[in-house]
Amino acid sequence: MTPNLHLWLIPLLPLVGATINGFSGKKLSRQAVASVALLFSGAAFAMVLYVASRFALLTTPHIEFLATWMRAGKFQVDFSFYLDQLSLVMLLVVTGVGFLIHIYSVGYMWEEGGFYRFFAYLNLFMFFMLTLVLASNYLVMFIGWEGVGLASYLLIGFWFTKDAAASAGKKAFIVNRIGDFGFLIALFLLIQHFDSLDFGQVFRSVAPISPETGGAGLLTAVGLLLMLGAAGKSAQIPLYVWLPDAMEGPTPVSALIHAATMVTAGVYMVSRSHVIFERAPIALTVVAIVGMLTALFAATIGITQTDIKKVLAYSTVSQLGYMFIACGVGAFSAAIFHLMTHAFFKGLLFLAAGSVIHAVSGEQDMRQMGGLWTKIPWTFWTMTIATFAIAGIPPFAGFFSKDEILWRAYQASWVYWFIGLFTAFLTSFYMFRLWFMTFFGEYRGQAEGGHGDSAHGHLDDGDTRAGAPAPHGHGIHEGPWAMVIPLVVLAVLSLIGGWIGVPGSLGGGNHFDKFLGPVFHSTTPAVDAEGHGVAAPAEQETEGPEPRTGHSTELLFTGISVFAGLLGFVLAWLLYYRDPQLPQRIATSLGGFYEAVVHKYYIDELYATLFVKPLIAGSALILWHGIDQDVIDASLDNSAHGASEVSDSVRHMQSGNLRSYAGWVAAGAAAVIAYMIWMGTR
Amino acid sequence: MTHLIIFLFFGALCVAGAVNLLVQRHPINSALSLVVVMGSLAVEYLLLGAEFVAAVQVIVYAGAIMVLFVFVIMLLNAGEEERSKGSRVALLFGIPGMLIGSVLVGWVLIERTGSQTVAAGALPGAPRTIGWLLFHNFLLPFEVTSILVLIAIMGAVVLATHPDTDAGKKES
Amino acid sequence: MVPISYYLVLSGILFACGVTGFLIKRNIISIFMSIELMLNGVNLSFVAFAAQWHALSGQVFVFFVMVVAAAEAAVGLAIIIAVYRTRETLNIDQVDLLKL
User: CATH number of the domain at B2-80+118-162, please?
Assistant: First the structure.
């Protein structure tokens, strides 16, 4: 007898918080708004912990039915919730990190206008994300999918009076939409062929189908289209362009949505659909290649950016590429492991960056920073831990997850491994570059002695500021406790978070992989003896799965990746600590190539010329002038004009002369009589 | 035979009166022609046996309404009609329309009735029978028409009141 | 024995004369009298049909028509008087202020 855990409460609680704050937040005090937001997101987290505590009692997958949504013949969609190990991991990450970021935001946004609006949107985002994770069919997942896109748009454009922020919000939403188009077509295909969108039903129907090794078939199409959707949401090539622009939003938004949770929705969706992907090797290969190219591409851009948040944004794109490489080689649990650790350290990086920006009064350009490590020690130490984690230095979290991905990638093809390794080197390099530029050397900015507010695009909407801290005039300082505590918690997690996935070669039991085992290995027949499912990419048919015979090979590769990380550290130390003039000389010597990289390979300009401008021009010419003005408006205008003209000609009948009226009456009467007689004789 | 002769004679008288109404230029002549028409019609009614209607025709129509007309003509001192610019529409559309309409209607009626004949005095037109109908089957219309007449009286009084009278009353 | 159609033809002629008068005449009062002529023509056809179908309600209808004609004449003439007072003319072609 499966217990009813009332899973519907988990998404509902933040929704209640969003509703309260959204509708009445304007009249509440800041403390009340913050309390409401923290209460409901915290309650969701507590609920998840409760579910986790009872998890062992459940049979997975645990499905809770709420109501039927629609029914059309054989096709039926229900509002029901799906809980298995994968959902539980995602739930813990989303609610845990989400709650911490809510706490951080209370401190960060305290002096902003629109305080209640921010928390309403944040809670709304939590609702949609939790719906996405808990969904038991693709359509409810799509609700969450679209909803997080909406919340992202609202939050990116939070300071909507700023042109750049409003445009960034629009860009995010529109690019997402392109991906959603792919997602929808995939759903239509599923409905057409399997008469259902329910996970259980679809996967059971798909399971007996043998892998499409010969050529592209239905599952390949579905897989590719799902990947298109994931590419939009998780910022992969070619739809990654919105993520760097999304940095216009407040930093907690970047941390929560564009690092820890929303952008991982694509990875989650691909992992959830692993049954389909494992039977479509071509699609899987495409996933891996896209991930690989994106990882490399974004990392190269990241090393040239000067805005601290943009570096982190490109880093996120790159790390998401890693997760897709993992998915593409069939190592879905490794992808989820990296998703989890990435949520910890990337979330921490963004929050710490926010703390830095707050400390230097809104400056985001790293060239204006430096020498901050003595002044903001908490931020410094937590950010250091996060930087080591992302660079893949043991024993921090990122090392274990990234290493797992690289090892599994090697088993599929050395190309993946090599690119992944090179990208790891670049990752380490640009992260330590950020670290050195921000915290070391001489301070190059102007924030001493005043507290400007250039990063906070102030929106004053008249809410009270009871309890706000007095305006500071005393230079660079640490943020309030509300901002520091989440940093510390995330730092601890970045340190120990990888320890549940220590692989066998290093003496651990890889508990994480085992935990997710039932999800990824129960329905696929392609499982080798040791329980690790491997999908054979089409061009690797001759090779087959690599048995884990010797741990020595794995240890060798582990050593190589650690070496790459350390190499990045050394290079960054050389260029940004020892000899700060060197980067400039290298840049000028590389000339045009460097310029291209700094300008992000001119991709935005390319898209603008290829798609945006023609679309706008076509829209203006055809839709606006051609249809809206010349057809719709014109028809209305002309019909009104016509009516006016007709009445103008008819009014001459009213001449005021009674005899003419009589004449008309007589003629009309004659006509009516004639008609009636004619009708009578028919 | 006699029936037919009387009918034709008074019918001719009707038509003559009607045409004279059209031809005469002074309204008083037209009014008197109309009286002739009404009298002839009363005889036609009698021929059909509708005595009550004939009587009412003479009393009310010829006796009251036409008298009212004559009074008004006298009051307003209406003179001969002047020539004035007419309405082209009336002549162009009206006359042909009227002709067409009446010809059509006439044709239909004649075709339908064919050669059915009616004897002289065919109707039981005694006042008693009509009264019975009025007060039983047609009671509601009867009462409504009485209210209509009341309203007409009030309307006529209000419309025709001399404007000076009110002012004079106010001043005094 | 007179055929019904004769009565109907007579009624039609009277009606046609009434309409013609309405269209031709210039004096308002003459126009009004043409209207009365039309009503009379109609009355005749009512009674003729009543006689044919032996339906007494035809005569009752004539009664009502007469009442209405009387009311209408009263009110109409009152209006004519009012118009004459303001316009000082009985020529219908000169009472054309209601034109658009």
Answer: 1.20.120.1200
